[in-house]
Amino acid sequence: MAKATMYANSKFASFCSVLGYFLIAGGVYFIFNDYPGVGAIIVVAGIALKLLAGFISKKKSEKEAKKNQDI
């Protein structure tokens, strides 16, 4: 089962993760209810959002680390 990750350093990344989880679940629902093409597209979009959430969190943590290092 997919897992929505909550990122402590970025609320937007957490939102993207939760939205990605819902898209994956909805896509699987569509796949099993006679809309496999639409379902596959929705699942791919959900996976992309989850990957985007991880990227956002990583970049924000790097930015905060650089900011703290400069002080």
**Count of discrete alpha- or pi-helical segments spanning 4 or more residues:** 2
Label the overall shape.
Answer: elongated
* Overall average pLDDT: 90
Radius of gyration over C-alpha positions, nearest whole angstrom? 15 Å
Largest sheet entry: none
Please give a quick description of this structure.
The protein contains two helices and no strands. By secondary structure, the protein is mainly alpha-helical.
Please, could you describe this protein's structure?
- With about 70 residues, this protein is mostly helical.
- Helices cover about 80% and strands about 0% of the residues.
- It contains 2 helices and no strands.
- It is elongated.
- It starts with 10 loop residues before the first helix and ends with a helix.
Strand and helix map with partners:
Layout: H1 11-32, H2 36-70
Task: Please supply descriptive tags for the structure shown above.
71 residues; 80% helix; mainly alpha; single chain
